[in-house]
Amino acid sequence: MSLPSVLQRRPRARPSGDGLGAWWLLAAVLPLTFLAVFFLWPVGAMFLRGVTADGALDLTAFGEVLGRERTWRILGHTLGMAAAGAALSLAVGLPAAFVLYRRTFPGRDALRAVVTVPFVLPTVVVGVAFRALLAPGGPLGFLGLDQTTTAVVLAMVFFNVSVVVRQVGGLWSVLDPRQAEAAASLGASPWRVFRTVTLPQLGPAIASAGSLVFLFCCSAFGIVQTLGRPGVGTLETEIWVQTSVYLDLRVAAVFSVLQLLVVLAAIGLSSAASARTVRALRIRDAYAVPLGRRDWAPALVTALAATLILLPLGSLLVRSFHSSEGWGLRNYRLLAESSGAGFAGGTTVLQALEHSVKIAGDATVFTLLAGIPLALLLTRPFHSAAARRAQRWLDGAVMLPLGVSAVTVGFGFVVSLQLEFRELAQSGALVPLAQAVVALPLVVRTLVPVLGAVDHRLREAAGTLGAGPWRVLLTVDGPVLLRAVGLAAGFAFAVSLGEFGATSFLASPDYQTLPIVVVKLLGRPGAENYGMALAGAVVLALVTATVMVVCERLRPRGAAGTGGAW
Asked: 482, 186 in Cβ contact below 8 A?
């Protein structure tokens, strides 16, 4: 009997977890152990460092830190920049979402791709690009915005506007235009139609995108650090300063707790808004308005995209070819010859790139070892109500690293694993483990939609034809998983390659990664160091872009990509 005939004739059975209940329980041990040892323990140790002293409860550190005016200035500066970044991202992203998802015109797909580019770039590259744009001698250097709070906010908008475009545009594209047309036929002006009909319908997606951007802005350590920590800095930069400069781990722990509370509040708002967005997206038909002869919106959005996105990246690329000797490849030649002017020894940029690739490869392996069992577990149609509840709890646990700043993760590694296992820390083994923690939620969110799309009736039919549970897993889920793993591995590699927050705490002096070296060069005086930083950022961007292009080619047909992770 053929497989299609079995699907047609056999009634759908109640799911049972594929007959591998004990094995699924065993499969959960490895990823849960990984999360417990390399996430919960470090974050918990960080929290305990702030609330205990000599093994006893001691909140004096909180009292001292919260009693300082500087603490509240740092908190206000962090929240203010995040709020400004979210508001401006919405202001820029909403018109762009309208044009890119409610209009059809030549070049729309290419323009969507351009708008998405900043979000996949390492934050260090974004920061260096804005330094190249706003520094004296740059195209916009005359504005005097270099190393200012305004520069940081603009970089945040650059990095996050695609989040708004994707989330709001996805809902806008499926709204039925007949309600707006009916309001217009009753005499409502276009602005009143938008305000009274369209905007309420888009409300869940706008709230979700805004809170998510706010979350990303609160944890934009790479951007803020690269742009010079303007003003009093942020909670993340203060954690780094207290740890690396003053060696005051208790005060750093208090700031980490404050950072964690801010991030958890943003996650709560984002989750609530996302749930409303998912309900609003349960619409089957999409509506697009053809481009009219006098519709100037696409041209305006194209010009805006060129100004906001292409200008910083173009400035970075062009200025990377300029050195003290004039125009040429000197900055790129120095990448393999020097670790920076005025400093003896150290790691060259190309050596740091080699280190980054090796570390990212190790981090990818760790991420997949934990992520694949988790994705399989989260997509099993278990019959037991207790098993389904465990799935929901497991899904929430997997997403926890996404809601904790990489700086907090890195600091947690310092106060737990690095202090307890000094030889392991000195070997550099903690860096890929920390990067794997950061990349794990993205990998799981890449695999789950693909595996979840597999019709469980195929597994039941294969079992009816005599296949055992393991053979069903290999022959039904295996091919889909194999293709999706390539996509997930690419994303994990790209995230690890550009990771800066956790790595800045853990990288050893003789085994630096490329983002760390680029930031150090940018902070050193001298035109040669600055030129090498620009060239190194270009190399990092090109490598990351290449990895992302490969990822897109590995995308399974019909896969949702990374949209769910946003």
From this structure: no
Rounded distance, CA 376 to CA 453, Å?
A: 12
d(CA 500, CA 435): 9
Q: What angle do CA 149, 231, 64 make, to 5 degrees?
A: 135
What pairs with residue 290 in β-bridges?
104
pLDDT tens-digit profile of 373-389?
888 888 777 677 777 77
What burial letters (b/e) apply to 284-299, b meaning 16+ CB within 10 Å?
A: eeeeeeeeeeeeebbe
Cα 425 from chain centre? 26
Helix (H, G, I), strand (E, B) or coil at 234: coil
* Ramachandran quadrant class, 58 (left: phi over 0; alpha: psi -120 to 50; beta: rest): beta
Q: Which of 547, 70, 110, 73 is nearest to 305 (CA)?
A: 110
Question: What does the domain layout of the chain look like in residue ranges?
Answer: 67-226
CA distances from 62 to 42, 67, 74, 219 (A): 19, 8, 15, 21
Fold of the domain built from segment(s) 67-226: MetI-like fold (1.10.3720)
3-state secondary structure 97-166: HHHHHHEECCCHHHHHHHHHHHHHCCHHHHHHHHHHHHCCCCCCHHHCCCCCHHHHHHHHHHHHHHHHHH
Q: Angle between the 311-319 and 123-134 helix axes, to the nearest 10 degrees?
A: 80
pLDDT in tens, 128-145: 999 888 888 888 888 888
Backbone angles phi, psi at 555, to 5 degrees: -60, 125
How many C-beta neighbours within 10 Å does residue 107 have? 10
pLDDT tens, residue by residue, 290-348: 554 455 666 776 777 777 788 898 889 998 998 878 888 888 888 887 665 555 456 78
